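Quick bug: Phytanoyl-CoA dioxygenase family protein output formatted oddly.
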Amino acid sequence: MAVKQRIQRVDRGDEAAIIRAIIQDGCCVIKNFTDVETVKKVNAEVQPYLDQDKPWKGDLFPEETRRCANLAGRSKTARETWLVDRLVRTLTAKFIDKTTSNFYGETKHTYTSEAVCSVAMTFDIGPGAKAQRLHRDDKNYHVDHEDQTATGYKVGSDVMMAFMVPGVQTTMENGATLAIPGSHVWGSDRAPMMHEAGAAQMDVTDCWVMLGGLYHAGGANITQTERRKVHGMFFTRGFYRQEENTYLANSADEVLSWSAEAQKVMGFELSSPNIGFVGFQPPLEYLRGAGVGNSFGDFDPSQER
Ligand SMILES: O=C(O)CCC(=O)C(=O)O
Ligand SMILES: [Fe+2]
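Here's what came back:
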């Protein structure tokens, strides 16, 4: 399949066309997703956290980028407006929910696990930032991608889906998200090339939607003064978590009194890469109240060199 750099733009009223674009390209820009007032409110709610954030040391983000993690907890407007948006739910139900049937004795039972928000975060890319490396967000969930270029995309083969709402107009210059439309059907052994990517430039009130298997990256910010703010909400399957929720059943002091092996097997370390962080720290460091100095760092060693 030829790489298409053109990113489709579809009005939020045309759900069938949005679904078609996601099946074809793995992504699209949704026009008229939200309104200016809501975007302004979310921008204001996250700004104190962006101001407090520290530069990143490592390869995950350029050091000029600031983030607001825990967007759902910190922005009431993002949580109660976008996270629960009816169109978002329609799309996560279509692409991420999972339904299977099993026998209990001789009776067939059918269950649907509904998508949950895996991470929600604002990305504020500052002047001088380099582009991120092209990546698939679902690397964190260890997806083995089969090559679907010949067969076409099979709905249900992704375990993640992202929605990114710009806080400002995003441009080629200020770091609009880069993406390779159609790369959601590539097999795991195909490397993405920057020249294959296009920029998902957006107006305020748009929303970028992409599957977890789509190659993309935060763009470079070559402006002198503009900050590129985008509010991201990333969904995954509802069962990608432990069956018993011991995070709520045990206090921090109890967990800190356990052996290192027990803490690890109970999920208080990260699953590589990146799964389970809190405040950009592994859970145990967070529980211990360990200081992070002036910067945050990669969770996993870089394999670039
Ligand atoms: O900032 C962006 O446009 C994308 C960020 C991203 O892809 C990531 O951090 O995984
Ligand atoms: Fe990403």
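Actually, after a second look the formatting is fine. Residues 123, 132, 137, 177, 216-218, 230 surround 2-oxoglutaric acid (ligand 1) (CB under 6 Å). Closing.
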